[in-house]
Write a structure and sequence with these properties.
The structure holds 2 protein chains of 2 kinds. By secondary structure, chain A is α+β, with helices and mostly antiparallel strands. Chain A has 19 helices and 20 strands. Chain B has a 6-stranded mixed sheet. In chain B, strands 1-4-3 form a 3-stranded antiparallel sheet, with no helix packed on it. The two termini of chain B are about 35 Å apart. Classes of the chains: A alpha+beta, B alpha/beta. Chains A and B meet through helix 16, helix 17, helix 18 and helix 19 of A and helix 3 and helix 4 of B. Chain B: Pfam families: TOP6A-Spo11_Toprim (PF21180), Topo_VI_alpha (PF20768), TP6A_N (PF04406). Chain B: InterPro entries: Spo11/TopoVI_A, Spo11/TopoVI_A_N, Spo11/TopoVI_A_sf, Topo_VI_alpha, TopoVI_A, TOPRIM_Topo6A/Spo11, WH-like_DNA-bd_sf.
């Protein structure tokens, strides 16, 4: 609820905040909470539940900000994320604390009594024994249990998270306020946005303040600037104002523009490693036009991780446009705010200009419907609270055209497809977009839920290899259904169970009917939903509820469309395989069939020779051949094999003439742009082409 | 013994105040009613039988001039089965040697090839067949299995022994892979050769049980079904060895489920009202169906069915009555005509005030099955059934026989059934 209400309050009251907080500091009885305080106390709603999750959320907030920033100036994003592990002693030296050895060991929770040590030693001995045995028997050993040292309570791990982008950068003077004041963001219009609360880096700053006390460091430069702003600051949580340590201008030698943010926080890499890597990879799937470099630098070098997600396309989705509210989506508070903020004079102008889908004619009709207290020419600022209720009621009940989806920026079928192919290398992939794509024309436009337009795009992939990286193994695909969810072009990783996509894919799609084996095939289901308002469920805003039938239906039909595309591919492939294996699968049954036939013939021959049964003439002729070994099991086998060969040949011929030369649809390939600095090319010229060796 | 207990029990029951107990008349009165019903129905049957026997014996397919020809199988002697197989095999061998491969022409048992004949009140198989060539990827497996089964049955014929379906499956597990495959082909084979499955000397494991006022001989041994203990006598799989049926029962009670059967057997319901109680514990197997038909034909008793009040209960009833689609080729031998639906009928739910918590809501699948059943001819022919089924689909409620236990475990045998008999409430 806080996310919904506070923007309105803060926008109005941002100027008053400082005054308010000054007052409240004097009056201890009536304590007022600053927004920063509120989030510090309820950090779980912003995704800072525990150190591990906090590390994850910090990374994603920084990455999402970076992407937004680059996209806002139509620059292909280049994002570098570095997480550096900071050991205890290094951390202490950073904050100027001298390391101190434990003197009174019994004071600590993790003190090991003699008995406990004895126990542990016995256990370790046994474990190493087993390990030795396994080693001897050639069995593969899992991580030896001994090396797993439990971390002592209270011994936190610290990480320096750095995120660098090539985005817009920030104006020199605005930087302190952009970071040091919660809920002072620019993202409060009605627009498809990545950020979920508009907190972004600020929450990370609050978390660093709470866990390490170290300030945040920001470097930024804008395209027009010839200097780099460097700023070190932290936040005064109680007063919700920035506390600046350093704010200076440096020379910009590399003509770099963008922002680099560095924050030191408590975290937990061990438990959230896979989540963070999954996040990065899924981000690369949905943003194939961006380049990501992710690095984890550990104190022990063998644990270092470097993953580069290269750019596969230079086509960026258009920037989402800020739009006006749809009358059926506004609440009373919002009407009040719009009335306060509007520059229009009359009620008619207000209705006509502050909402979508209300033209002059409709505005006049609406005012007529409101009753005698209202008139088109009345001053909008004179509308009373009661009258606002009347407007609200009418907005709810009246019929309006659906808002258009033009303000949305879906990933695009082309990009989604590329992303899936680039990062997951599936055997087959099909995508479907509910939008009017800029590459493929589709008959569907955006759909609407409670006055907010939304677009569902889906991809389904089958097969694919497990993605392995040098130092870590990321098992992205397990056999069965693997679900990848995206909302407003960011991956959702938590609370998968209740999500509309999960439910739909697992319960409402009959995979068998598309020749897909739900348990044995590696199926990837990718669904991206974009909207001006994603109807999240749960405190962490990590999933979309299954109870909205408009969205559930759209998701189902999008997945089904993909499946239909896949089915024809799969059927073709099965046919091709059948062609290849026909002879083999037929021949396999020859011995069984001929064996059974021969068995009966032999029995009959026996009966015949012993004169136990009389047979017809043509039968006796055959039986005599059997007894004279003219007909044997082998002759039957040979003859049947000959027949199979002939049938196989005929059918192969038929298949070839029928299917003809049909090729898979061609796909555009993306060639990475060459670095213009390279000049040492060797060109081999021929009349038709140039062959260039790149050194 | 039952009489001794009775007065005591009624006193207790009065205290408990079982619903509808009060309108229940004494057993003697009910018996009297039943006797009069049976004698009247017998004379009716006798008169109609007399009239029909003058023209012909029981109606067969051949008597009807149907637009499409139908396929029926007959009991064949072992040697003729053997000859049939040999003819087929020689044909195959000839075809293989000529370099033409081989194929079977197997009668189709698909739903589209089934026909309900109202005159016979059973499902019969039409004459459509499908070709099963060896040299086709889709049919090579089935063709090979068919060949193998033919060879195995040929052996059975030579040695004159019976084996179970399970035995048959285990002779070549590698080829058959799972028993449903060999079982399905077995039905194909009997259909193809034009003989009943029992004449192939392949039997299924015992499933059905019978208890009550019945004496018959099984392979020469006389069996008295009142002295078979609580569980009753297992219905022998090879019905051809059963004979000499005698009974002083007034009706046959067909029970869908084991639980209700045990209740009735333990309460010795058949001593209170002379009857024979049969169950196949769910979907009936061939042996139980054959046995029921034999009893009905030889003893000329009415058959009353006690099944769940759901679409599957009615389906089971229909399998006893008009045959299953899977084995429609042998429906002449497997079906028992004129089975009465005693309960639990959808209308009983309200009539006997079965409490809400014992009724179950029908699933979507249930309702669909129910609606499909309404289209089936064997339901349509009986207006009473249509009405009941309509009620079931409308109320969307089902109940199992066990729902009656909400009034006490013995409500079924103490009140429900006697009351049903008293009111002659069957359709």
């Amino acid at each position: 609820m806080a996310g919904g209400d506070s923007p309105a309050e803060t926008k109005k009251g941002s100027s008053k905040t400082s005054k308010n907080s000054k007052d409240s500091s004097k009056e201890s009885t009536l304590k007022q909470k600053s927004p920063a305080e509120f989030f510090a106390e309820n950090k779980n709603i912003a995704g800072f539940d525990n150190p591990g999750k906090s590390l994850y959320t910090t990374v994603r907030e920084l990455v999402e900000n970076a992407l937004d920033s680059s996209e806002s100036i139509s620059e292909l994003p280049e994002v570098e994320v570095t997480i550096e592990e900071i050991g205890k002693s290094k951390f202490n030296s950073m904050i100027g604390l001298i390391d101190r050895e434990r003197v009174d060991t019994k004071l600590y929770d993790d003190y090991e009594t003699d008995k406990a040590r004895e126990k542990r030693l016995v256990k370790e001995a046994r474990a190493s024994e087993i390990q030795a045995k396994n080693l001897a028997s050639g069995k593969k050993n899992k991580e030896p249990g001994v090396s797993k040292v439990l971390k002592a309570r209270g011994e936190a791990s610290y990480y320096k998270v750095t995120c660098k982008d090539n985005g817009k950068g920030m104006p020199h003077d605005d930087i302190p306020n952009m970071f040091g004041r919660v809920l002072s963001g620019t993202k409060y219009g009605l627009k498809q946005t990545r950020g979920k609360f508009g907190l972004g880096a600020k929450m990370a700053l609050i978390w660093s303040k709470m866990s390490t006390g170290l300030p945040i460091e920001i470097s930024s430069s804008m395209k027009s600037q010839n200097y780099v702003t460097f700023c070190r600051l932290d936040i005064d949580i109680h007063r919700n104002i920035p506390h600046i340590h350093l704010h200076e201008k440096k020379a910009n030698k590399e003509k770099w523009h963008g922002a680099e943010i560095q924050v030191v926080i408590e975290g937990n890499w061990t438990t959230y490693r896979s989540k963070i890597l999954h996040y990065m990879r899924q981000m690369a799937v949905i943003t194939p036009y961006a380049q990501f470099l992710f690095r984890f630098i550990s104190e022990t070098p063998e644990k270092n991780v470097t993953v580069k997600f290269t750019r596969r396309t230079d086509v960026m989705p258009p920037i989402p446009i800020e739009t006006k509210h749809h009358p059926s989506s506004v609440d009373l508070l919002l009407i009040k705010r719009l009335v306060t903020d509007t520059s229009k004079k009359t009620l008619l102008q207000f209705l006509q200009n502050e909402f979508v889908n209300i033209n002059k004619n409709l505005a006049a009709r609406l005012i007529g419907e409101m009753g005698p207290d209202f008139s088109p020419g009345m001053a909008v600022k004179s509308v009373t609270s009661q009258q606002m209720v009347r407007i609200h009621q009418l907005f709810r009940q009246a019929k309006f055209d659906d808002p258009s989806g033009d303000c949305l920026s879906p990933a695009g079928e082309y990009n989604l497809r590329l992303g899936i192919i680039k990062e997951l290398h599936p055997d087959m992939v099909a995508t479907h977009s509910g939008s009017v794509d800029f590459f493929l024309e589709s008959m569907f436009s955006a759909q609407v839920f409670e006055g907010h337009p939304f677009i569902v795009e889906a991809g389904v992939s089958v097969g694919g290899r497990d993605v392995k990286q040098a130092s870590h193994i990321l098992l992205l695909f397990i056999h069965g259904i693997n679900i990848f969810r995206f909302a407003n072009r960011i991956p959702l990783l938590f609370e998968q169970g209740g999500d509309v996509v999960t439910r739909t894919a697992l319960k409402r799609i009959n995979w068998n009917s598309y020749k897909i084996n739900q348990t044995q095939d590696k199926i990837g289901v990718f669904v991206s939903i974009v909207s001006t308002k994603i109807p999240f469920k749960g405190t962490g805003k990590e999933y979309i509820g299954d109870d909205i039938s408009e969205i559930a239906t759209a998701v189902k039909s999008a997945i089904q469309q993909c499946c239909i595309q896949l089915k024809s591919k799969i059927v073709k492939r099965l046919q091709a395989r059948e062609q290849q294996e026909r002879k083999r699968s037929l021949s396999r049954y020859i011995p069984d069939a001929t064996g059974a036939v021969y068995e009966v013939l032999k029995q009959m021959t026996e009966e015949h020779t012993k004169k136990r049964k009389r047979y017809k003439e043509e039968e006796t002729a055959m039986l005599e051949k059997v007894s004279k070994l003219i007909i044997t099991k082998e002759t039957l086998k040979e003859k049947l094999a000959e027949h199979v060969e002939q049938v196989d040949y005929e059918m192969a011929l038929e298949y070839a003439t029928q299917s003809g030369v049909s090729e898979e649809p061609r796909e555009n390939i993306y060639l990475q742009q060459l670095n213009p600095n390279h000049s040492n090319f060797i060109d081999l010229h021929s009349p038709t082409f140039v062959f260039r060796l790149i050194l | 013994m039952a009489d001794k207990k009775k007065p005591k029990r009624t006193k207790e029951d009065k205290d408990e105040d079982l619903p509808f107990k009060s309108i229940l008349e004494s057993d003697e009165a009910i018996l009297k009613l039943l006797k009069s019903y049976i004698s009247s129905s017998l004379t009716a049957a006798g008169s109609s039988g007399a009239s029909s026997s003058s023209s012909s014996k029981p109606l067969t397919l051949a008597d009807l001039s149907l637009s499409s020809s139908c396929r029926e199988v007959a009991d064949l002697s072992l040697s003729s089965v053997q000859t049939e197989i040999e003819t087929v095999i020689v044909q195959i061998a000839r075809s293989i040697l000529a370099g033409d491969g081989f194929s079977f022409s197997v009668p189709s048992r698909a739903a589209s090839n089934q026909l309900y004949v109202p005159e016979l009140d059973r499902i019969v198989l039409k004459d459509k067949s499908t070709l099963r060539p060896f040299a086709s990827v889709s049919s090579v497996r089935k063709t090979t299995i068919t060949t193998r089964i033919l060879a195995l049955i040929h052996q059975l014929c030579l040695r004159n022994i019976h084996v179970t379906k399970r035995d048959l499956f285990y002779t070549d597990v590698k080829l058959f892979q799972d028993q449903t495959q060999s079982d399905a082909v077995l039905d194909d084979v009997s259909c193809m050769l034009g003989c009943t499955r029992s004449s192939l000397n392949v039997i299924a494991a015992e499933k059905g049980v019978v208890v009550g006022r019945l004496i018959f001989s099984d392979n020469g041994d006389m069996i008295d079904c009142t002295k078979m203990g609580m569980g009753g006598k297992a219905i022998p799989p090879n019905i051809d060895r059963v004979g000499d049926m005698q009974s002083d029962a007034m009706f046959i009670l067909l029970v869908e489920k084991d639980a209700a059967y045990i209740r009735l057997a333990e309460d010795r319901f058949y001593n209170r009202f002379p009857c024979i109680i049969v169950t196949a514990k769910g979907q009936p197997d061939v042996a139980t169906r054959l046995f029921l038909r034999k009893m009905k034909m030889e003893l000329k008793l009415p058959v009353l069915a006690l099944v769940d009040s759901d679409p599957y209960g009615l389906k089971i009833l229909s399998v006893y009555g008009c045959g299953s689609k899977n084995m429609s080729y042998d429906s002449a031998n497997l079906t028992t005509p004129d089975i009465k639906w005693l309960g639990i009928r959808p209308s009983d739910l309200d009539k006997y005030k079965i409490p809400e918590q014992c009724r179950l809501p029908m699933t979507e699948q249930d309702i669909k099955t129910g609606k499909d059943m309404l289209e089936e001819d064997f339901v349509k022919k009986n207006p009473g059934w249509v009405e009941e089924l309509n009620l079931m689909v409308k109320t969307k409620q089902k109940a199992e026989i066990q729902a009656l236990s909400s009034f006490g475990f013995q409500y079924l045998s103490e009140v429900y059934l006697p009351l049903k008999l008293q009111q002659q409430d069957w359709l």
